[in-house]
Amino acid sequence: MKALITGGMGFIGSHLCELLLAGGHEVALVDNLSTGRAENVAHLAGHKRLQIHIGNVRDKALMESLLEQNEVVFHLAAVVGVRSVLNDPLNCLDTNIRGTDMLMELACRYGNKVLIASSSEVYGKGTEGLLSENSNRILGPTTVTRWVYSVTKAVDECLAMSYAKGHGLPVVVMRFFNTVGPRQSSQYGMVLPTFVQQALKGEPITVYGDGSQIRSFTYVADAVHAAAALSQTEAAYGEVFNIGGTEPVSIAELAQRVKRITGSKSSIEFIPYEVAYGDGFEDSVVRVPDISKLHAAIGYEPQYSLNDMIVNTIEYFLERQPDIAPRRSVAISLNRAPTMEENACQSR
Ligand code: UDP
Q1: What's CA 49's distance to the chain center, in Å?
Q2: 208 Cβ closer than 6 Å to some ligand 1 atom
Q3: Is 292 left (phi over 0), alpha (psi -120 to 50) or beta?
């Protein structure tokens, strides 16, 4: 297929790009480099089936030409990360809603299939058990900025379902649950890269609240496999799918595991939400997906354990920051012999 990935130089987009190229597909990426990074796809530069475009999904002329040239669109471009949303909620609303609306309107005109990235944030702060695609959404007041992202993704989903019903647009909604792995930046507040970096540097690991909030992390390779498989499954169009992991963990336990696996001497510090995010912040208490619908559609089973996710994230940061102090002890706790470089690094 000829696939366009919006947000293709971002964390999930770059992994999806690799997977599609490996599957023999032609891939075009468009990214405005707001949270995406050129280095995420630098190793793919020059690939004969890859085109890279720097631009904004709000640029109508650019998007028209890209949609005309491609068949399937994976729409991953969005303002993401709790911190980005808190810093500029208007930009989040503008990009996530107007950008997606325009893209789907153009897709109707150019006959594209569309896969829209949504998020477990749409479920809000529910405390119930497994979240299935038809579970209720429980959000705080509109004056609490944290919920802006959730609202934008819910509007995107409503738009998708309405374009499907009203205009016959073939569209799939993918609700990603806390996707993690190599290339995820800690810059926008995401918890696993933040904890790993803190642990590797020997800095305090910052658990917000009392750490009892629960998440079910999804490894990025599992997430992009699901996205690619959904795009090739006719029965998936017109449907919403949870894409998530099956190993719920409290954030306090996550901090302990990161500390243990890195062999770090970091302390674990509990920071009140109002100190971390400002007054009036509300967190999601429990967020664990029911993935039976995804399993029924594409046979999805997560292939990576939570420990695999942590180890692979550690390895990624070690490769990028070779002067991190406790490299030798990390290698040992990862259950492999330290390299010569790691031994040398330890003695510096
Ligand atoms: N979190 C934390 N310390 C950090 C960053 C995040 O304890 O340095 C918590 C955050 O409050 C939330 C969970 O970790 O309860 C997951 O946060 P993230 O921003 O990764 O994703 P979210 O689930 O909020 O979308």
Answers
A1: 25
A2: yes
A3: alpha
Buried b (16+ CB within 10 A) or exposed e, 115-139: bbbbbbbbbbbbeeebbebebeeeb
| 149 belongs to the catalytic site | yes
**Residues of the chain by 3-state class (helix, strand, coil), percent to 5:** 45, 15, 35
DSSP three-state, residue 62: helix
Going from the Cα of 118 to the center of ligand 1, the distance in angstroms, rounded, reads 18
pLDDT in tens, 31-80: 999 999 999 999 999 999 999 999 999 999 999 999 999 999 999 999 88
What is the per-residue pLDDT across 181-202, written as a single tens digit (0 to 9) for each?
A: 999 998 888 999 999 999 999 9
What's the count of helices (H) and strands (E) in the chain, helices before strands? 14, 14
pTM for this predicted structure: 0.93
Residue having the nearest C-alpha atom to atom 16 of ligand 1: 191
Ligand 1, atom 18, residue with closest C-alpha:
190
Token output for 73:
């669109």
Q: How far apart are CA 296 and CA 54, in angstroms?
A: 37
DSSP class of residue 136 equals P
The tokens of 108 are what? 């109707």
Going by DSSP bridges, is the β-strand pair 72-75/50-54 parallel, antiparallel, or unpaired? unpaired
